[in-house]
């Protein structure tokens, strides 16, 4: 009956949070004691509540019971489905106070704020390189270990990053998803399209320090430098 009357009779003596049910208070107390009584039989990871263990087990079973009614995309946890639904509603409640850019999730806003602070808390212990995000550091670490977990199923070529494998697969499929809106020329990679667009804008950001000749692409400037290098060699 307490759940209907909204009466919260069970109060935590540590933080004063109140609960309608006794077992809810009991579960809450574990957050203070840090006791993890519920252990996963597969990977031995411990949890403070049975509910958290149940959610964790979905990682092993690959079960995705929470399905989006709009696009049928499935998720292992209800919270992930809730976050996903915001992509359909386009609702962006979390606004950056510095640049006014809005986001649909608090976590995304938090990640965005790092770009303003220029904070790079994740540092490589091998070479000292600092990264903004942990995932960036993890990707960077692969350059030291030379581990290549992402293997092409067509030619067996291996890559350290998933993104590199994704780009490589385009060489097999011949797919060119990035299309120029001006001349309709298509490219396999976004970076190539970006470079191509400079040929339309006539923007030349790369300037030779010796003769002031400007180029739209960095590689164009690099090739041009060889002319000066050869000239120096001839006159030595």
UniProtKB/TrEMBL annotation:
GO terms for cellular component: nucleus. It is found in: Nucleus. Residues 10-37, 38-65, 66-93, 94-121, 122-149, 150-177, 178-205, 206-233 form the C2H2-type domain. The keyword Methyltransferase applies. One of its GO terms (molecular function) is zinc ion binding. It holds the Pfam family zf-C2H2. The keyword Endoplasmic reticulum does not apply. SMART domains: ZnF_C2H2. GO terms for biological process: methylation. Keywords: Metal-binding, Methyltransferase, Nucleus, Repeat, Transcription, Transcription regulation, Transferase, Zinc, Zinc-finger. This is Histone-lysine N-methyltransferase PRDM9. It comes from Araneus ventricosus. The lineage of its organism: Eukaryota, Metazoa, Ecdysozoa, Arthropoda, Chelicerata.
